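User: Let's play a game. I give you a shape written as tokens, and you guess the letters that built it. Ready? Here's round one.
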């Protein structure tokens, strides 16, 4: 009886080999690529699985290792889908130009951070991009640092001095928006803060308070409502502000998701934006132009930040492959105040 035929070799992946041999994908990759840091027993086991499954190395994938390109990991737990989608689009655009592969892992708590990081390591990533809010997580940065992988933190308001980062000046962005509202004539301004554990949220809140104080205006405690950068948190915060008597004539939201929520609450209460209430946001995600009326906001070049994050992580990978220490960079990009129909003078 002829031997039972296995799947076509074109369908066999390194993950199949790893499962068959009972080893991690990283170990299987090391054996297949001739890495000497594998015990003879494991090498024999993996090679036996390669022969039995009829695995043929992916030459395109192998060329990634020899032509200077890389495999990039993205570790995220961002609550704003609009922000994350823009960032990932930028990452994919730039990686496709360089021939780099991208692997994305989601996590939440400390345990899942560790597990997701381990999955990226086992997949053989050469460097990891960390979007907010994990860019401010000592746990997440520490997990990656322990594995001596290049890191690029995206949109951290206080980047670690030893970690390459890219972002904008969140403080000045919020100053610009607050001054814009003051210039329209608003004096009773409500503010919806972002996640207090995220440094850009802290900077935007501080900038709002400082700019109001600079104008000689006191911010009553009830005029600042806490949010978490999520649409749902924006609903609760906006309702709290709009139930005040007198209510604010303008609401400055720390991101566009919460601004969209504030718009929904205002419409539900029969308030016309902007003649009865001005609402502004921060980020300029695609959501800003799908709202009615379209949202005045601070444009953070999120997609461009994703593209540049890929460039920064690849620079570190190349330096390490050449045996040189990679220089830490902190790149600051320009923000823009985008004026649309959701803002106007107070009623």
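Assistant: Ready! My guess for every position:
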């Amino acid at each position: 009886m002829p031997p039972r035929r296995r799947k076509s070799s074109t369908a066999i992946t390194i993950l199949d080999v790893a499962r068959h041999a009972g080893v991690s994908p990283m170990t299987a990759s090391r054996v297949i690529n001739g890495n000497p840091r594998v015990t003879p027993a494991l090498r024999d086991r993996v090679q036996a699985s390669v022969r039995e499954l009829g695995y043929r190395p992916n030459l395109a994938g192998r060329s990634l290792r020899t032509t200077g390109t890389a495999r990039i990991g993205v570790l995220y737990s961002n609550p704003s889908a609009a922000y994350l989608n823009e960032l990932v689009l930028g990452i994919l655009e730039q990686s496709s130009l360089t021939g780099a592969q991208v692997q994305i892992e989601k996590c939440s708590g400390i345990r899942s951070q560790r597990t997701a990081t381990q999955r990226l390591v086992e997949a053989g990533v050469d460097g990891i991009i960390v979007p907010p809010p994990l860019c401010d997580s000592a746990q997440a940065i520490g997990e990656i640092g322990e594995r001596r992988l290049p890191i690029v933190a995206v949109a951290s308001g206080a980047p670690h001095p030893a970690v390459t980062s890219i972002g904008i000046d969140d403080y000045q962005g919020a100053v610009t928006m607050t001054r814009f509202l003051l210039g329209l004539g608003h004096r009773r301004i409500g503010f919806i803060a972002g996640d207090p554990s995220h440094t850009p949220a802290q900077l935007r809140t501080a900038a709002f308070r400082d700019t109001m104080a600079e104008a000689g205006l006191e911010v009553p405690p009830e005029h600042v409502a806490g949010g978490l950068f999520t649409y749902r948190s924006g609903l609760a915060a906006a309702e709290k502000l709009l139930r005040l008597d007198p209510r604010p004539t303008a609401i400055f939201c720390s991101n566009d998701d919460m601004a969209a929520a504030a718009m929904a609450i205002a419409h539900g209460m029969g308030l016309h934006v902007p003649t009865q209430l001005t609402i502004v946001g921060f980020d300029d995600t695609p959501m800003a132009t799908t709202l009615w009326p379209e949202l005045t906001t601070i444009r953070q070049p999120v997609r461009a930040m994703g593209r540049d994050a890929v460039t920064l992580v690849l620079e570190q990978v190349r330096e390490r492959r050449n045996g040189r220490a990679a220089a830490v960079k902190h790149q600051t990009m320009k923000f823009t105040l985008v004026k649309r129909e959701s803002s106007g003078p107070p009623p």
